[in-house]
Each structure stands twice: as C-alpha cells, then as structure tokens.
Write a structure and sequence with these properties.
10 helices, SGNH_hydro, Lipase, SGNH_hydro_sf, signal, SEST-like, Rossmann fold, 266 residues, single chain
C-alpha cells in the first residue's frame, strides 16, 4: 500500500468534515423579524370603550383596548387604529379603510352590534317592561338573520379589496350577563337570558359570514364566560357606566379580548 495517496485522501476527508462542521456551528445572519402592519377597525368594542385612558380627540379610542395591547406586545412595524365608538358597517366602509393597503398584513374588527341596534335594545330592556324587551330582542334577531349578513359581506369585501394581502380577523361579542340572582335593582334574569340569546344569534351570523369571506372568526363568549354583568368579578360594565354601559372594562379587554386574539395569532 502506498502511504502518500492514503494520507492525501485522509486529509481531504478531514477538510470536508471540518467545512461541514463550520457551516453548522458558525451562526449565519440573524433572521429578520416578521413585518406586521396592523390595522384595527370596528366599533366601540374595538376602540376600547369601557376601558378608560381615552384619547379624547378621537372616537373614545383607548390605550387599554385589545388592539392597542396586542400592538404593544407584538412589536408591530406599524399600527393604525381607526376603530370608532358607535360605528356601523357603513361607517367602516366609508370612514375607516384609509389606512389599509397592499402592505397591510393584519386587520381586526368587531362590527354589527350597532347595525342591529343593540345599544338601544339594552337601554329598553334595562328600563322597560319584560314584553317590550322581548319584542325588541326578537326584532334584533330577525334583523341579524336577514339584513345583517349582507352588510357584513359588503364590509369584509371592502376590506379585502383595500388590503388583499392581510389576514382578516373578525372578533365576536361576548355574552353580557350572568343570569343568577343579582340584587333587587338588577335587570331580571329572564331579560338577561334573552339578551344573551340574542348575542348567540349575532355570534352565529357573524361567524358564518366571516367564514364565507375567508376570515378568521374569534368567538369571544368563552373568554368572557363567568365574567358578565352580575358576576362576582365582572368584565362588563353595567348601566352605571353611562356611555360605557355594557362594554368591557379594562380587565375585559386585557383578560377577555386580548387572550381571544392571541388564541389565533400565536
């Protein structure tokens, strides 16, 4: 056997192994952080009504809203926040889509409750008779199943047109009430029950239309379970909140809506 060729072959083999190890052990350039251009659309449940810490020059947008909290926790590249208290679907289409573009990567929205008139229904049920409450809730259910789907479809389509590359995340509304005994001045258990049933109808309709639009629907109800009005630790404000009545408080946005959004964003 000739030793010199064997030595050359052995040296070449060692060099190959060393090169391979160097490729594994020497770190390459750090991976660039993902770009997140986030736009938060919608009504008061998106703007953060009930949480406090409002920018009074805006539509009661709060730094404690789920949108603001998520943006702060995820080091977003950009964050636009046109959500506005009192908004209906037409307001989203006509007034909130300006920040959207082909570079938008994520859009969140709550919408539809004001279209169905839930604010006035809640007021009617709080201060009106059982029969009036039942009638108004039934009207809202009918609207939610007949008129609202088309409005939601148009809203989601408009968002898609302006932000074709974005992930659209539609968040639903929580059930607002616990139905056990809640004191002599509280809304009756039967009223609270039918209002919760209306919330269930709204969730079902919204989930179906979000799915049809290829959006991700997040059901807020499980995340607020046990923390409605009349709970020992409520995350929803009662009528005593005046303009904030029947909206999440700061805990509701932090411990209800934010985990709901986190559940689909990782």
């Amino acid at each position: 056997m000739h030793l010199r060729p064997l030595a050359r072959a052995l040296a070449a083999s060692v060099a190959t192994v060393a090169t391979a190890l160097a490729a594994v052990l020497v770190p390459g350039p750090a991976q660039a952080a993902a770009t997140i251009n986030y736009v938060a659309l919608g009504d008061s449940y998106s703007s953060g009504v009930g949480a406090g810490s409002y920018d009074l020059s805006t539509c009661l947008r709060s730094s404690k809203s789920y949108a603001s909290l998520w943006a702060a926790a995820n080091a977003v590249t950009s964050f636009s926040f046109p959500a506005c208290g009192g908004a209906v679907t037409a307001d989203v289409i006509n007034e909130q889509l300006g920040p959207l573009s082909s570079s938008t990567t994520m859009v969140t929205i709550t919408i539809g409750g004001n279209d169905a008139g839930f604010s006035s229904i809640l007021e009617n049920c709080r201060f009106g008779s059982e029969s009036d409450c039942t009638n108004r809730v039934n009207q809202a259910k009918t609207f939610a199943t007949t008129e609202l789907p088309g409005r939601l479809d148009a809203t989601y389509a408009a968002i898609r047109t302006r932000a074709p590359n974005a992930r659209l995340i539609v968040l639903g509304y929580p059930r607002l009430f616990e139905t056990g005994w809640c004191g002599v001045l509280a809304m009756s258990s039967s009223k609270r029950t039918i209002l919760n049933e209306a919330a269930d109808v709204l969730a079902s309709v919204t989930a179906a239309r979000a799915a049809a639009a290829g959006a991700t629907f997040v059901d807020a109800r499980p995340f607020f379970a046990g923390h409605g009005v009349c709970a020992s630790s409520p995350w929803i404000k009662d009528v005593t909140g005046l303009i904030e009545a029947y909206h999440p408080n700061a805990d509701g946005y932090r411990y209800g809506y934010l985990p709901a959004l986190n559940s689909v964003t990782g």
